[in-house]
Amino acid sequence: MGPFLITARRAALGLLLGLGLTGLRCHSGCDEDYVELSLPASYTDYFAQFPGSPSPAGAGRPVDARSSTGLTDRYANVFVTPYGFPTPESYNCTIYRSEGRSLFYNPSLYPRYFRLSIAQYPSGPTLVVEEQFGGSATPSASEVYYPLTGTEPGRVRYTEPGQYTRTTYAEPPAVQTLPALTVAGRTYREVLRLTNPYAAQHGPATAAGVYYIDRGYGLVRFEQRDGTVWDLTP
Fold this sequence. Notes:
mainly beta; 7-stranded antiparallel β-sheet; disordered N terminus
């Protein structure tokens, strides 16, 4: 074998080893690139009817709720916070940080909370609805993702008790824009009706399978798996 072929083979081998080491560095977290995803100005008016954070205790907007079965509840301190989690999945060596806005709802009747967010994802502005609920015999959390622009479909992810990984559910959420919706005497325009098929089929009886979301007022109605409908009056 001539010197030229030996040199060429060594060069090729070195290139392959270099690529392999690069891949290892990416997966080991040594060479990540961080990308800040800024929310477009046209989406920063989401949840505008609520005060922003930092907000002292009790300074948020109270949200009363009444169910179709006659129960009442109150989410005492709802205010806008910066978006933090769940973050977009990393791709190759790129780690994303999303800018956005979130509302937290903490019911007093059930051991759960809602978080409603508008956040910038790689695919564009995305509405994220999370529900965390207690109980050891049922999944502990589920999240609905709905891109507000583009053609990418929505998806549902869930986490089971005692586990730390999120799994994508096979059935995507169904989305419908209602021209108008009247809740507790107030009429909202262009309300988004968003389903959570995972919660509707596998969640506890009180899990929310359908959400009704107004751009300014956030969550205005939800339907539980057991058929109970809750109307919110922010």
